[in-house]
Design brief:
Elements lengths: L2 H29 L1 E8 L11 E3 L1 E2 L3 E3 L15 E9 L2 E8 L8 E12 L13 E8 L4 E3 L5 H10 L4 E7 L5 E8 L2 E2 L3
Antiparallel strand pairs: 1-3, 1-10, 2-9, 4-8, 5-6, 5-7, 7-8, 10-11, 11-12
Amino acid sequence: MKQKQIFHLTIVFWLLIFSGFILFKEYTLKTGKEILLKTEPVDPRDLFRGDYVILNYEISTLDLEKIPAEDRHFEYNDRVYLALAVEDGYGVPKKIYSTPPDNELYIKGTVKQLIYDWEEDGDGLIAEEPRIKELRVEYGIESYFVPEGRGIEIERQQWGGEEGVDVKVVVDKYGNAVAESLLIDGQELEI
């Protein structure tokens, strides 16, 4: 093959890869169900990525005492599927699955941290098998780029706003999620 042909094939290859990423997100936006997720404050800083906010959701920390799990054995980087109930437009945790549930709205995530409950026996010794108390999960929607100059304003709102910051998320039938827009005190952020 000539060098020119290799160059053209490389360009076509990368264009196909980028197009695939775009089409994947567009598919989710067009076919998914729209829900709102509540956020919790985080303090990000990155001078090289432009204005963006790091979003930590209420569903990012899953308390296994409050949310039933199909199986309570989890490891770092395990795939989990969080079934969601929709209450007043908000997605709230219903049950944690290790495989995609049938006929339920769910969001796909990855376990990033395990919080253990170290129980003591009657003699004050710590039990050998600790129980997992909480999971910290990422869903791939934790960063959101915002209009220039708005990042710090949004962070302040997360820390002290009356209603805070919510995110309009679209979740498709495979549990893939795309953050569509931010809502500050119930008003959609204009981009």
